[in-house]
Amino acid sequence: MKLDDVKKLHQKKYRTEFGHFLVEGEHLILELEKAAANNPALAQSEVFVTEAYKDFPSQFKKHLVSEKHMAQLSDTKTPQGIIAVAPLLNATLDTSSIEKAIYLYEVQDPGNLGTILRSLAWFGNFRCLLSPGSVDPYNPKVVRSSMGAIFHVPMELDVPLDLLTQRFKSIATLDMQGKKLSDSSFKQYECYVFGNEARGVPRDDLNKMNAQAFTIAGSGAIESLNLASAVNMCVYELVR
Predict the structure, then answer these.
(1) What b/e sequence results for 189-216 when a residue is b if at least 16 CB atoms lie within 10 Å of its CB, and e otherwise?
(2) In a 3-state reduction of DSSP, which class is residue 211?
(3) Considering the entire predicted model, what is its pTM?
């Protein structure tokens, strides 16, 4: 890609138009290299480096740029000196998949989504579905907080909530009045729905889906758990 086009990838509309996103930092690019070994599309990634990284070994096409240009490409206050441009990884619909589906309804916080992707990648055999109105998973903040997990978790974007029942025979969600998470039936569902950080999931929609509610028992000292923490506990319970 041309350097001027790469600079535009900080904006979602250009990530969508060009079909690429930015991956900044040595650790993330090493994760990208590992993922590219099993994904031919990722092998088409390109790397932009400053003088400090000119000898960085990479299977990708490499471009040397000035510190000034790197600062324009970087999303951080202190650029690391190495950024890759990678193809978007949107997963296609797979109704035959044996993966458990984690559906996130209008998740807004980039850090939450990145943390959730890390957990899904760590345990494996999970697919992440994002509703319309969710944070863009290719937002640089999400990519960084995922620590490379974004390359290893199948993601589907803009999946409408009301289409879940057409795809999944059984759906579970979290609610303070639900069954205990330790109940043996918790592992039997195909899709697990988690809501927006502030508003949750519309109750009427959950009722229409006949979603079974479960709860993470706590002391009652505070009102709620952080979204990423709740998802992480549920995912651990599913593989325990």
Answers:
(1) bbbbbbbbeeebbeeebbeebebbebeb
(2) coil
(3) 0.91
Closest CA to 115 of 151, 146, 141: 146
What angle is formed at CA 202 by the lines to CA 140 and CA 178, rounded to 5 degrees? Answer: 100
Per residue of the chain (240 residues), give pLDDT as tens: 889 999 999 999 999 999 999 999 999 999 999 999 988 899 999 999 999 999 999 999 999 999 999 999 998 888 999 999 999 987 666 655 678 999 999 999 999 999 999 999 999 999 999 999 999 999 999 999 999 999 999 999 999 999 999 999 999 999 888 899 999 999 999 999 999 988 889 999 999 999 999 999 877 676 678 999 999 999 999 998
